[in-house]
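Review the following:
>
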Amino acid sequence: MSRRAKGRPLHGWLVIDKARGDTSTEVVNRVKKITRADKAGHGGTLDPLATGVLPVALGEATKTVQFVMDAPKRYLFTVRFGEARDTDDAEGRVVATSERRPADAEIEAALARFRGEILQRPPTFAAVKVKGERAYDLARRGEPVRLEPRPVRIDELRLVARPDADHATFEMVCGKGAYVRALARDLGEALGCLAHVAELRRLAVGPFDLERAITLETLERLVEEDSLPQVLIPVATALAGIPTLAVTEPQAERLRSGQSIRIAPRLLGEHAVDGATLKVLHAGELVALARLAGAEVSPVRVFNLKGGSAARPQE
C-alpha cells in the first residue's frame, strides 16, 4: 500500500471570501488541497448560507486559532420579516407567518434591547452539543431540541438599509458565541412580525477583513503562479492586542525548549501585568506564547517557523 503524500510546511493565515453554499470545512479542505499544506484549520464557522471572511490557518498558525475565534466579528445581514423558519435562515422550512410589517422607527427602538450583554438562545440548528450530539443532528432527525439562553455580547447593531417593507439590512459587531440567526429570530418576535435571516455576509474577524480576502479561484491562480506569499499573512497577526516581549536568541532557544526565562521588570512594559499572556518575538519572528509570573516568563505554546514557508512580518 502506497503512503499518502505528506503536505508541505506552510505557516500563516489566508483570508478566504467564502462563497454561498460552501461549508467552512469544505473550504478548509479545498485550501489544504490547493496549497498542499500539511495542516489547516479555520478561525470560526460560517453557515453555508453565509458569505465573506473565513480565516484559514496553515501550519503553526493553527496554534493561534482560538484567539481568532475569541475575537470580535462584524456582519452585514438582511432580515426577512413575516416568516419564521425552523433554521432561522432562508434555507429552512417556513413554520409560521405574519402579515405585520414594522416601521423603521419601531425597528430602531427595538434594537436597543439587543445591544450590550444579552441572553440569547442559540438556533435549534446549531453546532452546540446536547448530550454529546450536535443540536443540528438532533433537529434533522426530528428530535425535540431546546437550547438554554446564554450570555453573549453585541457591541454594535444598527439599521443600514430598508430595501422594502419585507426586508431590512443591519450591521453588527459581536463577541464569541453570538448568532446572527438567533438575533433575527428574536428581533422578529420583539416586533411581533416574525423574521429570519435572508442574506448574511461576514465583513471581519478580529484583524482579518474583506480587504485581505481572496476567493478559492484566486488562491488556485496564485499557487499556479507561485505567488502564494503575496497573500499569506504572518502567524502573529492573529495575536493582535496581546502584549509583545522581544527576547534575545539565547532566551528564544530556552523558550523553544520549554524552559522559563527571567526578564527585568523594566523590559516588560506597562501592559504586561502579572499572569498576563505575552507574545514573544525574536528578530520579528514569533517564538512563543508565554505566561508572566513575577519576573519569570514560561512558555505556553511554542512555534517552530523554521524549515518551512512562512509569511514574513509586515514592516
Summary: The chain has a mean pLDDT of 89. Helices lie at 24-35, 65-69, 104-111, 135-140, 180-190, 216-224, 249-256. The longest helix spans residues 24-35. The two ends are 48 Å apart (CA to CA).
